[in-house]
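Troubleshooting: if your tokenizer reports a length mismatch, compare against these two reference records.
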Amino acid sequence: ADLILEVQLLSADDAPELELMPPSERISLANRKRERGNVHYQRADYAFAINSYGIALQITEATFR
């Protein structure tokens, strides 16, 4: 038997503008992305882990420019 799943996107938010965020919020966001990367890594979802770590790194680099 086939299973059909329909998904409806109810809302979407733009990425936060890092330049407008206080450094403490940027660091907190980067840490959440790093932690998400750790979860993906533990599940052997390496592509998702790399993506999450990359986003965390971009946020961190924007914080210390």
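Reference record two:
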Amino acid sequence: MSRDRDASDRSFDRQLAAWGLLDDAAPLFRDGSQIPGAGVLLALPSLLESGLLLIARKLYGGIGPAFYGLRTTLLTLLLMALLRIPRPEQLKERDPVAFGRLLGLDRAPEVKTLRRKLTRLAAQHRAEQLGAELARRRVAQRGHLMGFLCVD
């Protein structure tokens, strides 16, 4: 939950993060029209259903007190993939306010911030375990649909 009331000004949440009292800023959306890339938000229900955020929280815990925490970092990467942005450096070519609106924040994380978060996650060496947990969950949910393909 955010203490800020204006989605375009998250100064209170940013201050809480600076004091070490916030692990991840909660999304806070505002009304708008013609938001570039807003169609990617249609993928959010599937993302939540996949369990990625729950499993990542279980495996990685948090990534320290921050405005851009684990959830925001993962959502940024997923939205980048859906928008066909292959590298964090290419976020520099995007409007940070417009991309931030997709995240429910006042602005997107900067490239150096995203790189720092990725480095912290990679240092834990849990990517393979994350993939395995996601696969287990998917099989448990849809096991009756699973099959085998034999290629000769």
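Descriptive notes for reference record two:
- The chain has a mean pLDDT of 90.
- The chain is about 50% helix and 0% strand.
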